[in-house]
Structures are given as structure tokens and as C-alpha cells.
Amino acid sequence: AFTASPLRNERGTAVGTTIEVQDITARKQAEEALRESTERLRLAAEERSQLLAREKEEAEKANRSKDEFLAILSHELRTPLTSILSWAQLIRSGKLDAEKIKHGAAILEQSAKAQGQLIDDTQCDQYRTNLYLQSALQFE
To answer: Quick one: residue 12, left, alpha or beta (phi over 0 = left, psi -120 to 50 = alpha)?
Structure first.
């Protein structure tokens, strides 16, 4: 940048020009570096926002899947429990003959095994899910 000023004599008459030159290269370089840094930060913030939005969407999807799974599991566990409770009440009533009691005991056993299998399956699914999540987190 340069500045030109009139050079005056004692009477105030312009007799020449004074030119002042200032090197603004460093300032221009600093301004450009600031613009580049600002753009990099803007892009990084945009990337981070997109990543957070994707992670939020994935977390919400996982939460919906979990809720659906728990609803199904609750229903599947309740079905054998209803049978167990009903047969236990019938047997305790003392109104059943030996053949009905034997039949009821078989249903109680079958229902208890079904519940045990559901619990075992759930534990296996949870183990597999944990392994999947651990391996997925290693690659991030």
C-alpha cells in the first residue's frame, strides 16, 4: 500500500509529493490464512453435525428395535406364564381327577421349558449383539 501527500513550502504552496510505501504482504497472508482456517473449521463443523445426525438416527433406530424386541419378548414370556398360572390354579383347586392333573403337570413342564428356551435364546442374542457392537466400534 502506498500513500501520497503533497509536500509544501513555508508559504503552503505545493512543491512536490511525498510518497509513503508500506509492505502489507504479511497482513494479506494472515488474512488469507484466517480465511482458510475459518473454512476448514466450517467444513469440520458441518462434517461433525452430519456425523452426529447419522449417529442420532442410528441410536433412534436401535431404540425402536429394542422396544419392538422387548414387546415381542414380553408377549412370548407371558404366553407360557398364563398357561402355568392357569394350570397351577386348576390343580390347587382340588377339582381335577388324576388324569387331568397328569395332563396339567405335562403342560406346566412344557411351558416352563418354553420359557427357559426363550431366556436362553435371549441371552444368546444379547451375546451376539454385544460381539457385533464391539467389532463395529473397533472399525470406527
So the answer is: left
Tell me how far apart the alpha carbons of residues 104 and 122 are, in angstroms, rounded to a whole number. Answer: 27
Q: What is the pLDDT of residues 20-53, one digit of tens each?
A: 888 889 999 999 999 999 999 999 999 999 999 9
What is the chain's length?
A: 140
The pLDDT value recorded for residue 67 is: 87
Distance (Å, rounded) from C-alpha 140 to C-alpha 125?
Answer: 23
Average pLDDT over residues 64-92: 86
Residue 74: HSE in the Cβ half-sphere, 13 Å Cα cutoff: 6
Which is more confident, 69 or 131?
69
**Identity at 48, one-letter amino acid code:** R
What does R_g of the chain's alpha carbons equal in angstroms? 41
Within a 10 A sphere around the Cβ of 129, how many other Cβ atoms?
13
Helices and strands counted in the chain (H then E): 2, 2
User: Using CA atoms, how far apart are residues 105 and 24, in angstroms rounded to an integer?
Assistant: 96
